[in-house]
Amino acid sequence: METDCIFCRIVGGGTDTEFIYQDEEVVVFRDIHPHAPVHLLIVPRRHVRSVNDLTEADAPLVARMILAAREAARLQGVDASGYKLLFNVEWGAGQRVFHLHLHLLAGKRWAEGG
Ligand code: 5GP
Ligand code: ZN
Questions:
Q1: 85 close to 36: Cβ distance less than 8 angstroms
Q2: In the chain, what percentage of residues exceed pLDDT 90?
Q3: For atom 2 of ligand 1, which residue has the closest CA?
Q4: Per-residue pLDDT, 2
Q5: Given pLDDT bands bounded at 50, 70 and 90, which one contains residue 112?
Q6: Which residue owns the Cα nearest ligand 1 atom 24?
Q7: Is pTM beyond 0.70 here?
Q8: Mutate to test the pocket of ligand 1, among 10, 31, 84, 105 (most ligand atoms within 8 A of CB)
């Protein structure tokens, strides 16, 4: 746990953030500044800075994140209508919280191919 990391604080229960889903490895909660009607963050409990810092040994964790996203989509009722999964990797791509997270966006109509 990194004490100056907001997502470590959330994972550790140090805020009143509600978890939509949680298991031994990941938690899922709503983004505080949503970019879509449903905007969730899938966050590993363990602090990893970004996708760049993942190792071969983290392959099960990445799979767990995607499966947690699928379950959260089901729980939010957007699995059939559809959703986007997105990693922002490092500053130039828009990453601002440097604790690995997967965005789940749903509930709006995106342009064809957008
Ligand atoms: P990034 O830009 O790093 O890929 O995404 C970080 C996301 O975390 C942003 O969409 C931002 O709104 C969200 N976020 C930042 N701080 C908090 C917080 O304290 N609580 C919640 N729920 N979301 C946060
Ligand atoms: Zn962290």
A1: no
A2: 91
A3: 95
A4: 73
A5: confident
A6: 32
A7: yes
A8: 31
CATH number for position 63 = 3.30.428.10
Beta carbon of 22 within 6 Å of any ligand 1 atom: no
* pLDDT above 90 (res 113): no
- CB neighbours of 44 closer than 8 A, spacing ≥ 6? 25, 26, 61, 64, 65, 100
CB 102, CB 42: distance < 8 Å: yes
Query: Which atom of ligand 1 is nearest the CA belonging to 39?
Result: 10
d(CA 113, CA 87): 18
Which atom of ligand 1 is nearest the CA belonging to 17? Answer: 22
Is 97 near ligand 1, meaning CB less than 6 Å away?
yes
- Does a structural domain hold residue 20? yes
- Work out how many domains the chain is built from and give that number: 1
Ligand nearest to the CA of residue 29, numbered in listed order? 1
pLDDT value, residue 45? 98
114 lies in a domain? no
